[in-house]
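As agreed, record minuted below.
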Amino acid sequence: MLSNSYWKGTALRVLRAAFARFVRGEADNKGHFEVERKFALTEEEAAGIPSRLEGLGFVYAGTASMTDFFLPTIVDGEMMRVRKEKIGTEPTRCILTVKKWVSTTTGKERQEAERNVGLSVGAFWKLLGRVVGGEPLLSFSKQRKLFDGKLGDADAIVSVDEVDGLGSYSGCYMEIEVLVPLDGDVAVCRDHIFNLSKNILGESRQDVKQSYRDMLIKSLQA
């Protein structure tokens, strides 16, 4: 007789394949590299960043209220997420995301694919993830100030986050993100990101290696 762990593992693999296929769509969009680095901030630093970004040519694009729900996955480092997001007076939207680590010629980066869906579709995937996982989905919320600009020839987004629900990891963070085609040069983008962080913060600072999901899991284990 097959064990319960076997059936759960099979269900998780089916969920993973179905969610990834749905997010990529009929064209099987393989997505892009998400070259992103995160930096911890004090509240005082977070308050001063908008004016620094304005001086560097970045434009404020709004403040988003986000709640992230993570579907269970059996592959270390992979992430399947359902995000509810509202920016200003715009309608609430739902974004499905799949991320996985892949090796490049200069190290590892996240390969990401996303799809905007209706709230009912997002609710379906949340329910399915909870049923397959057998427990409530991991989730947390954040307020995110968004700033658009350029790093070299690439579009960049700088986010200033105020994060709740991560226990001792809750607080303020800055993320600098560039989306790079799968055949693009991620090494150049990394250099641009760290140079920008130095200009914003006034010093070289080590980035935070843990994702918000990793912080959430660690906070629950404490």
In short: The CA atoms of residues 52 and 199 lie 8 Å apart. Residues 4-24 form the longest helix (21 residues).
